[in-house]
């Protein structure tokens, strides 16, 4: 039997718990605050940023959105990040990705104080994650791990196959699963015999960015299938990288799209913001 890993439902539960924690912090005079920076008018980014603001409001986290035009220069953005780094009332800073072409994404990420880097993208935080130190974990991988743990899915000794090697999903989820004692294989667009490898996976994480690229033929019976893809169809509806209807016949657990990994990404951002407000990521500013 297949069990649905419903990220939307789990997100709602976690947000209720976080609201209680935020209320307690507020009683002690500490209101977690997140600054979100959006450059340009990419419709998907706008929608994700709205989702982040709404989720902050639901949990009592204060937030502000800095919206900048598409032709903002790198220097202008760096100067705004600097202001936010030096504002003690701001605990978390998030620059929505992707950025316009004139910006060097890595340079921008480097400019965010590691202590306020609630996305967990700064190299200091990436390094700490790599060595297993406590730090901000990037939100999508953190959400995936939380979903697996919520269903007590054992990772010990399991073969986890990751399709995709991006800095924000593929690479970090592999590291997190390795730290949970899974045996991890990374695959990507140049991998030969992909199907042969994915069919060995006990846990298959799909982050390819190609609608319905993975179907039951790529899946071992009773594997756990996590779909990170968000693709818009011609009719405007969203769909994943996994052909859900076909794949669910083989999977023991499977995430849907929408309402799977996506909502968890936003929820783990809230968790990181609370952590930042509590000063739990001790790094130089
Ligand atoms: N600075 C960052 N930029 C980006 C990140 C990130 O973690 N930090 N991740 C993605 C986009 N993303 C968050 O920013 C994100 C993607 C999807 C969802 C989500 O809730 N999806 C819903 C469907 C939403 C819809 O209807 O459009 C779902 O899957 O159910 C939230 C956040 C790239 N940029």
Description:
Strands 1-11-8-7-5-6 form a 6-stranded parallel β-sheet. Strands 3-2-4 form a 3-stranded parallel β-sheet, sandwiched between helices. α2 (43-59) crosses α10 and α6 packs across α10 (261-277). β9 (231-232) and β10 (238-239) form a beta hairpin. The chain has 10 helices and 11 strands. By secondary structure, it is of the alpha/beta class. The chain is 40% helix and 15% strand. It has helices at 7-27, 43-59, 74-85, 105-111, 123-130, 139-150, 170-179, 194-198, 244-247, 261-277; strands at 3-4, 33-39, 62-68, 92-95, 159-163, 183-187, 203-206, 224-227, 231-232, 238-239, 253-254. It has 2 domains: 28-113, Rossmann fold (3-Layer(aba) Sandwich); 139-262, NAD(P)-binding Rossmann-like Domain (Rossmann fold). Bound molecules: the ligand Nc1nc2c(c(=O)[nH]1)N[C@@H](CN(C=O)c1ccc(C(=O)N[C@@H](CCC(=O)O)C(=O)O)cc1)CN2. The ligand Nc1nc2c(c(=O)[nH]1)N[C@@H](CN(C=O)c1ccc(C(=O)N[C@@H](CCC(=O)O)C(=O)O)cc1)CN2 binds at residues 47-48, 51, 94-97, 119, 139-140, 168, 230, 238, 257-260, 262-263, 265-266.
């Amino acid at each position: 039997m297949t069990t649905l890993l419903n990220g939307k439902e789990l997100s709602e539960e976690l947000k209720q718990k976080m609201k209680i924690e935020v209320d307690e912090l507020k009683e002690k005079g500490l209101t977690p605050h997140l600054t979100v920076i959006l450059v340009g008018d990419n419709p998907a980014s706008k929608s994700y940023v709205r989702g982040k603001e709404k989720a902050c409001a639901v949990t009592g986290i204060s937030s502000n959105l800095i919206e900048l035009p598409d032709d903002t220069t790198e220097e202008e953005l760096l100067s705004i990040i600097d202001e936010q780094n030096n504002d003690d009332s701001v605990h978390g800073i998030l620059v929505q990705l992707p950025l316009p072409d004139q910006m060097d994404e890595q340079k921008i990420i480097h400019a965010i104080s590691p202590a306020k880097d609630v996305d967990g993208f700064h190299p200091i935080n990436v390094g700490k994650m790599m060595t297993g130190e406590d730090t901000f974990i990037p939100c999508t991988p953190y959400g995936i791990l939380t979903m697996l743990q919520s269903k007590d899915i054992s990772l010990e000794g399991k073969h986890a196959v990751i399709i995709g090697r991006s800095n924000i999903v593929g690479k970090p989820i592999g590291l997190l699963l390795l730290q949970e004692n899974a045996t991890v294989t990374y695959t990507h667009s140049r991998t030969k015999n992909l199907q042969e490898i994915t069919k060995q996976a006990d846990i298959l994480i799909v982050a390819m960015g190609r609608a319905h690229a993975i179907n039951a033929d790529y899946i071992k019976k009773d594997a756990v299938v996590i779909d990170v893809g968000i693709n818009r169809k011609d009719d405007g509806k969203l769909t994943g990288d996994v052909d859900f209807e076909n794949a669910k016949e083989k999977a023991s657990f499977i995430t849907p799209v929408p309402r799977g990994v996506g909502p968890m990404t936003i929820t783990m951002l809230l968790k990181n913001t609370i952590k930042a407000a509590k000063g739990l990521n001790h790094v130089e500013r």
